[in-house]
Design goal:
Residues 57-84 form a coiled coil. The protein is an all-alpha fold and 259 residues long. It has a domain at 92-258. The chain is built from 3 helices and no strands. It has helices spanning 2-24, 40-177, 180-258.
């Protein structure tokens, strides 16, 4: 502020000097009978005075410009020193805030770890309950399918035995009452019918086995998805904590480098 005051004072002095210089010029007094014409000597003297005034004015302007430049440089240095002083004052506070932030991060990391353990425990309990429920459901479905297959096999067996009984009866009847050609035709028809029924049962059994295999694969995929979800839940808080710690370390290093 002193520089600015000096610069302003200097400008005021410069104006005052300029006014004094102008006041020094004396106008020729006019009397009643004196000749008022300007001689060549007086004209040259006035020109010399004007040139001297202009030279002095240029000198003063140069000094004023130099003073303004010096004032600007001093103001910039003052601002730079003030910023450095503020940075030096801010550095301990920033370090203290960083330490507090690190302590907060430590406590938050402990809270995150505890919360993660609680989440893992709840997920394990929920996963175990779901697995047990699915196991019971699959077991019930398997029992129902097994009973259905056994019932169908018994029906097929009963139908086959009934067909065999009819076949034997027809055979005896044909042997007793008809020629050999009439006996073999119904026999071949019965064989084809029973063979078609057996093929249908085999296809149905294969489809049931394939359905059970697909359900088992879906269960394995569901378990893999649950496992990957647990791993993702574990990874996110750790990555967040690592990123925060790295950011705090970078800020500390930059502050120390600036200091």
């Amino acid at each position: 502020m002193s520089v600015v005051t000096k610069s302003r004072d200097y400008e005021i002095v410069y104006v005052k000097k300029r006014k004094k210089t102008r006041n020094k010029r004396k106008e020729p007094k006019v009397t009643g009978r004196r000749d008022t014409t300007i001689t060549p000597d007086e004209s040259e003297s006035g020109e010399a005075v004007r040139i001297g005034y202009e030279s002095t004015l240029q000198t003063l302007r140069g000094k004023l410009q130099e003073t303004k430049t010096k004032h600007r440089r001093l103001v910039e240095e003052l601002l730079a020193s003030q910023e450095q002083y503020q940075e030096d004052e801010e550095l301990p506070r920033l370090k203290h805030e960083v330490d507090q932030y690190a302590d907060t991060l430590g406590s938050q990391s402990l809270e995150y770890a505890q919360e993660l353990e609680n989440i893992e425990r709840r997920l394990k309990v929920r996963h175990a309950a779901q697995m047990e429920a699915q196991r019971l459901e699959y077991r019930a479905n398997i029992e129902v399918l097994r009973e259905s297959l056994q019932q169908e096999l018994q029906d097929v067996k009963a139908g086959y035995e009934k067909g065999q009984w009819k076949l034997r009866r027809t055979k005896h009847s044909l042997v007793a009452t008809s020629p050999k050609a009439q006996f073999w035709l119904p026999l071949e028809a019965l064989k084809k019918a029973h063979k078609a029924q057996i093929e249908k049962m085999k296809e149905k059994h294969a489809s049931v086995v394939e359905q059970l295999a697909m359900e088992r694969a879906q269960l394995a995929q569901h378990m893999a998805g649950k496992t990957s979800a647990i791993q993702e839940v574990k990874r996110k808080p750790k990555a967040h904590y690592t990123e925060i710690v790295d950011t705090a370390c970078v800020v500390c290093h930059r502050s120390q480098a600036a200091a």
